[in-house]
């Protein structure tokens, strides 16, 4: 392929990168021979200094490789644009070789054997290109949007068109790429082709690296052992909610909260209403809950101030009742 005036700086930079990579490789080979000689003489310190030089050279080579890959990708983009401009000849190739049987069947008003084509209600335009039918004939869209050109699956032309749209629209995702392509063309098996184009794009791969995911810890014993309902319970509060009390002359909204009790074994849920977020209101809610569901073995909660204060008050009561026989 002949290099134009715009591509000359790119070709020169590529030649410089290749030359520098060759020079670095020659230096590494010489250092390797020298290190082998020093290893026989057991000169450890000299070997260590030379190894540092080798590591520095390797780092420079990796940087040059990245620049080389970027240059290669820029050339691929330019080639892709040039191939996209020559697409009219490829469309003629589609008519002659790929969709020749379908075109002949449409000209003779016969049924098309390929179900993935016949299901699209296709027809021929003035240029003998197969276009997709549909129910958008009376819409205000353009003719290409209402009736896109049919493209074959697993074909070089389809890949060139989808790569062109992918690069032109700033490396969009697979779903957006398929939507943009279908504004003018209808590729068969287009969803999978769009995923392959995005997956094989080097810039998309660099921009979206695979992230590490934290491994979840094992569930606590209370969650995986069989027990009676609400023997192991979790509690949390939500709200506020605004309600009106019945038979009030003035409709004043009152603020209330809801305590959610969840059984760790059966996942059953029990709800209780609180008038405020104080520890006394929380203890009263626990009394109502114990009266209906029974006393719990373990209660789990967060470190909210009302939970901490209620816990300290209940511990004080427990210590007090523990000392009652001694006092009496």
TrEMBL record:
Gene Ontology MF term list: nucleic acid binding
InterPro entries noted in UniProt: Integrase_H2C2, RNaseH-like_sf, RNaseH_sf
Protein name: Integrase zinc-binding domain-containing protein
Species per Swiss-Prot/TrEMBL record: Araneus ventricosus (Orbweaver spider)
Domain Integrase zinc-binding intervals: 154-209
Signal peptide annotation: none
Domain of life: Eukaryota
